[in-house]
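Q: I'm writing a short explainer about 3-hydroxybutyryl-CoA dehydrogenase for a general audience and would like to include a description of its predicted shape. Could you first generate the structure from this sequence?
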Amino acid sequence: MNVNHILVVGSGVMGRGIAYSAALGGYQVTLCDISQSAIENAKSEIGHLFLKAVDSERLTSEKAEHFSSKLNYSTELEKSASSANFVIEAVPEVMSIKKEIFEKLDQYTSTETILATNTSTMSPTEIGSYTNRADKIIAMHFFNPVHKMKLVEIIKGLETSEETLRVTQEIAHAMGKETVGVNEFPGFVTSRISSLVGNEAFNMLMEGVGSPEEIDKAIELGLNYPMGPFKLGDLVGLDTRLKNLEYLHKTLGEKYRPSPLLVKYVKAGRLGRKSGKGVYNYT
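A: Of course. Here's the predicted structure. Afterward I'll give you a sentence or two in plain language.
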């Protein structure tokens, strides 16, 4: 299968990062969202990524212009999907939203088009059941920030074909990523570990074991993590972290019960960098 046009659905932090990386991989890319303001924001942020790449001499201005020209922006899902031969969905981690998107994509795209979900916890088998092409459904777990993080976890569903896996791996490699194949199980590999560490950090903060700065420093220097759990949680979004924990608690049991303090932060609107304040203050 020859992939030349990738559609990315959802223009949030992950979606625009995936779109940017796909364009650098040489693909024609359409970034689609229902919100025009979200599209304009994503276009601005992607432009900023190209400028930074030129300033740091990772790209020449000519190459930045070339790759930038491969990006298109749209609020019309049906029109965008009709010409795509690979789709990466990057909407919030809510199964009802993903169900709606995949039902539409199943109608709007060619029957040969592969549909991938960017998810850190959810089942590609279940998502495949919302379509008439379970063999062409697969999960790609990208990491934030997408343009810097090298790994993509690739997860087959029960009926995902080997050809779908092969094409997905090729696309990830063209985007400059390393891949690992993971057997489908809630949370895969990285989300299970990251959720446990982040949740325990909140429990320690609640218990008064140390300040956020002290806990982050201990994890970074003592365990050689590149980023402490509070810094990472603020970057990913504490609401996203909470959704992941709620899903893992439901599917894997008590050890993933969300920390009461994390729940309190999310209820207070302290979601991390995107809201200006999480564990740390970014205003």
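A: For your explainer, you could say: The chain is about 50% helix and 15% strand.
Q: Perfect, that's easy to follow.
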